[in-house]
Amino acid sequence: MPFKTIIEPFRIKTVEPIRHTTRTEREQALKEAGYNLFLLKAKDVLIDLLTDSGTGAMSSAQWAGMMQGDESYAGADSFYRFEAAACEITGFKHIIPTHQGRAAERILFGSTLKPGHIVPNNTHFDTTRANVEYRQATALDIPIAEGRQPQLQHPFKGNIDLAALEQVITENPGQVPLAMITVTNNSGGGQPVSMANIRAANEICHRHDVPLFLDACRFAENAWFIKTREEGYADRTPLEIAQEMFSYVAGCTMSAKKDGLANIGGFLALNDDDLAQRCKNMLILTEGFPTYGGLAGYDLEAIAVGLHEVLDEDYLRYRIRSVAYLGDILTREGIPIVQPPGGHAIYIDAKAMLPHIPQSEYPAWALSLVLYLEGGIRSVEIGSVMFGQQPDGSEKPAAMELVRLAFPRRVYTQSHVDYLAEVLVYVNKLRDRIRGVAIVDAPSILRHFTARLAPAYNELIGG
Ligand SMILES: Cc1ncc(COP(=O)(O)O)c(C=O)c1O
Question: Other C-beta atoms within 10 Å of 66: how many?
Fold first, then answer.
């Protein structure tokens, strides 16, 4: 094609108005929400980048599929369509539906982990970590060293450290019942994992008889990075690449709220008959019968269609490019971000942008509040408010102070992103005047969801 512009590969059939508010209204909304963006009313947000999970737009084919939802308690047609779609991509024998990803995690870990066990992973997502720790096991993060340096360029920063993987397995015989790789690595900046890394991790695990699982939430985005960055994959389809990724592992957990292009749902998939039976027994206890797993028949239909659509090359090209597009503008403007841009989000390095705010005054949280105040944008802090509180109640600064701007799938257009870039550039010019924040009141666990904060010096932006 002689044209370079990558367009949104869809036209818009249904619209949902978004509402401009005034700066004074946003100031008031922040006050009422205790300076916590989780506590805002969504109607007061102009562009909502809190998460890419379950927030995507479904296609007309998905809505049409939902009308075919078979709501039979057992053996519904919808289940078989869902199972066929998941099976075509993953190749696993047992596809167990769950209401979302963390339910798949809870069931897998509930069936495999005992106190004292260790689960290595490139980086555990918070719910994955919490579900491992709930079994009194250790969730061990072993990304490659490059993955911990925000500004460093590397094509596959999500890779797991293979030497560390081998070491933890050999030094703890019988204590590592499974290993995981998260694709893409959400907590590590949405960074991809190479095929070579998955293959090599499998060889290590196989040699030690340890099953390797994928946390596959963003498997299609990862497949696209392999296609465009790893030698030998340029001519392979995203489906073929995904199939190869899954061929190296014993099973996966999946949140269909990401690369299932659905608003709810997930699954656990694996080959081991005995483990599958134990997982299904647990599923019946808390989620539902194994042919619906806590989902409506119409949810299963939406996922079946979504799993197919997410591997479309035009979609993936647009998806990855729309995140990189914002990354390019911010990099040009000298705004520090995790490099290179990830698959589903841009992560602003607030520690680098606001060096005058000590970590004890939560620079990333402060920045996220100013983005809302000035532009009506909702982001999420991934820093010391989220991770600083230790189990004994003490405070330890997080390794990084990031503001994540997560892109819902097929929701915003290029002009939304241009607006976003304008707000970020504007806020960057104010950066020396941005003040820190203090925690006024917080629960003892997962405090970021409900904590109340206040500007440390009476105002978010000083004179
Ligand atoms: C990498 C990763 N794993 C697991 C989950 C949990 O999925 P869910 O929110 O559907 O429970 C998420 C959700 O954001 C995720 O990003």
Answer: 19
The CB of 187 under 6 Å from ligand 1? The reply is: no
Q: Using a 6 Å cutoff on CB, does residue 100 contact ligand 1? A: yes
Q: Tell me the average pLDDT across 365-389.
A: 95
Return the best residue to mutate from 217, 219, 257 for the ligand 1 pocket (most ligand atoms within 8 A of CB): 217
Residue with the smallest CA separation from ligand 1 atom 16 is: 186
Q: Please work out whether the CB of residue 189 comes within 6 Å of at least one atom of ligand 1.
A: no
Q: Determine whether the shortest distance from the Cβ of 257 to ligand 1 is under 6 A.
A: yes
pLDDT number for residue 286 = 92
Q: Which atom of ligand 1 is nearest to the CA of 185?
A: 1
166-222 residue pLDDT tens: 999 999 999 999 999 999 998 888 999 999 999 999 999 999 999 999 999 999 999
Whole-number pLDDT of residue 414: 94
Average of per-residue pLDDT across 258-266: 98
Give me ligand 1 centre to Cα 431, in Å: 32
Q: What is the pLDDT of residues 87-137, one digit of tens each?
A: 999 999 999 999 999 999 999 999 999 999 999 999 999 889 889 999 999
Q: Rounded to the nearest whole angstrom, what is the distance from the C-alpha of residue 101 to the centroid of ligand 1?
A: 5
**Is pLDDT at 387 greater than 80 in this prediction?**
yes
Q: Please check the confidence at residue 39 and state whether its pLDDT lies above 80.
A: yes
pTM: 0.95
Q: How far is the CA of 112 from the centre of ligand 1 (A)?
A: 19
